[in-house]
Batch of 2 targets.
Target 1
Amino acid sequence: MGCDVIPTVITRAVVAEELPAVLAWAARRPGWTVEFDDPALRLDVKTNHPATGTPLLIQADLEGYRAVAPGWRFLNPGTGEAAGAPFPQPGFRPAIRGSIFHGNRVICAPWNRLAYQENHGPHGDWGALTNWTDAAAGYTKADTLADMVSQIDLHLAASPGIMP
Amino acid sequence: MSLGEVGADIAPTPGEHGPRSEASAPHPDHGQITVQVVAPRDPDHPRTFEFRHNELVGTAARVAADAFGYTAGNPSFANDENVVLDRDKSLAAEHVHDGDTLHLVDVGGGV
């Protein structure tokens, strides 16, 4: 597998450095599991929706990481495919300004490369994909894989259910 | 920062349980509290911080975030019940007590 941004050997080295924190983070939270698919350079995060108990599979495509952000998306936990994937409804907490879960079924955060217009996401205002650690100042911020999973957890806790 | 200074990280070595942190608890100054902070990027090594009880959550979280190497963002704390604390309120107003464990979170919203 190749990448025009960064060699996979570099990405693997970065992931090897960050993975222990993600695994340790998940180990502290009942119902969360994290698995790294090394050949595919993918991180599979499994949990249940806190309000409905719906099984969730959140996958990060790590190709090109950290030159570009991972590509985070929800997949159908039964098939591993995008079709039929449950997607959380946006929810709000008083101390958080807005949800990362959008009606277009994209995790709308600068640390998700699928949110950028370049990848058919809604945001053409964040600059280049490689600007992800500085994009959207003042909004959700997560610079490591563990921080990203923590952000997903935070916003899931505020989600009232699954989008129809 | 020196021991006892507001916002001081009194566990300079992650995971250390040295005499400096032990000496601070129980703390004689009721205006100061000592809390453990867990950060997602280093969950196996919580760090100990000493804050004024009337310190703003946002200010205290920034100190902790800096110590863990976080830059920018909107750091706050969540308690063990996963309740996110209001950055604009004091630790006391958000019912943080001496000895509590707080979880560092970023409360910047979605876009």
Note: Residues 29 and 110 of chain B are 40 Å apart (CA to CA).
Target 2
Amino acid sequence: MASDRSNEADYVRPVRRLVIGVLALALLALFLLWRIDSPRVERFRTAVVDAVVPNMDWAMAPITRTARMIEDFRSYTRIYEQNQELRRELQQMRAWREAALQLEQRNAQLLDMARVRLDPQLTHVTGVVMADAGSPFRQSVLLNVGARDGIIDGWAVMDGLGLAGRIAGVGDRSARVILLTDSNSRVPVLVQPNATTALLSGDNSPAPVLEFVANPEALRPGDRVVSASDGGVFPPGLLVGEVVLGADGRLRVRLAADYGRLDFLRVLRSRPAERIEQSGSLLRPVAADGTPLDPATGAPLPIPLPDVVADPVVPAVEAVPAPGAQSTDGPPNE
Amino acid sequence: MNEVWRPDSLAHLALWLAISAGLILLHLLPLGSARGDWPMPDFLLALTLAWVLRRPVHLPAPAIAVVFLAEDLFLMRPPGLWALAVLLGSEFLRRRQSVVRELNLMLEWAMVAGVLTAMVLGTRLVRAIVMLPNDPLHLSFLALAVTILSYPLVVWVLQGVLRVRKPATGEVDELGRRL
């Protein structure tokens, strides 16, 4: 057109120059305005984008969908190697999951041993398992605590969660623990919801058998089994496990203690069971200072009865198991 | 500028606007993985310059300014600066349309490459003057090189597919005037 002036009127050229000059100035002004007052122009930009881009959904969606489909189709062609890759990753993840579970259990165990007190008077000594019997299911383990640490034969041994066994044989610096699964182990237990008493006897299988159940029809698989203080062997109320119905139809106990990983065990310092010799004052009201009151008048009785309990707080270390308990329920294999 | 309002010119303008919208939209699509570190050629710019060199009547300057301003806005560039550069570059080429009409593709290509380089350098200069952070030098020159390399392809598409050619000698418009 520039070559062919005949097509253009005379006024066209200056007008075009003017238009272009105005356009250029406007663009430059917009740019400078943006440089000086950026937020305002950016708001304008946001408004423009907001107004336009969502309305382009109808155009964008099909294109995007098509592109994704092409991408997906491409991935189909290498689905086999992808599958292999996923399998490998899954395998690795399984290993990690196992490791995480083990760490979690161990952590819970350690935390538990560090902090939990079942009973303020029930202190414990924590020992490390030095050796075990080596059979597929260890029936006895050796702890690195002994008479030096005040361990006494017959005390209960727990891992973080549940009852694991019982001290049977104390050396100076070590002690042997008969586990509940040992065929020589007999422990009185209580099945909880209805307080059925039974005897837990090990038979070298992972789940010891419940014997001498008072009323077997009252038991259900899943019932909680805790230790009983019958015979003064164990402190009452320690978690043992839960009732399961064995494959042979006998009632067994799945132990709460993790027998697969006996690393740290704690030995509970048992106190001798308090013996109640006089029943009279049990039902009698007592004042805060211990003086018996007359149930009818509420006045202190003139002649106090002899105290029943000698001293409720016995230093735990000096505690000696009741002689009866020792004789009736010593280590069975010794 | 009456030629702009003829149906043929308006149809071509609409076509160019549609292509511009499509190319800008393509930039906005969430297909980030398609683009690697190798920059995409600026097809819209190459197309516009080639088109202006062939049929300047189809692309009036205000349309170019508006489209590239919209591109600035959508692609989060400083609004107005690149549009200004494109406007000036396209006007420079529009003035020389009668010269380019006689040139073959190689010389036209060289000319367009010079204009593009001048645009990029000018933009960088302005950004430096107003103390805006510039793109890394090698990246902007890589983009420039890619755009320049894509120019023959764009010309081929423009002439072969869109049928926008340089006016042949003695070609007349529908009113019988020589182009």
Note: Chain B has one domain: 2-26+39-160.
